[in-house]
Fold this protein.
Amino acid sequence: MAKLKCMDYGFECDFIVEGEIEQVIEDFRKHTDEEHGIDYSKEAIMQFLLRKQGL
Ligand SMILES: [Zn+2]
C-alpha cells in the first residue's frame, strides 16, 4: 500500500490518494496534471513514494 498527499508536495490542496503503488501513481499524476497543470513523470512520483517510505 502507498499513500501520497498533495499538500506534502507544496500544493494548497487536500487531495490524498491511497492504494496500490501503480494506482497511486496513476491517480496522483492525473490529479496534478488536471488540477495543478503539472505533469509529473511516473519516475518522479515513484521517487516521492520511495523517499517517503524510506525504502
Ligand atoms: Zn492537489
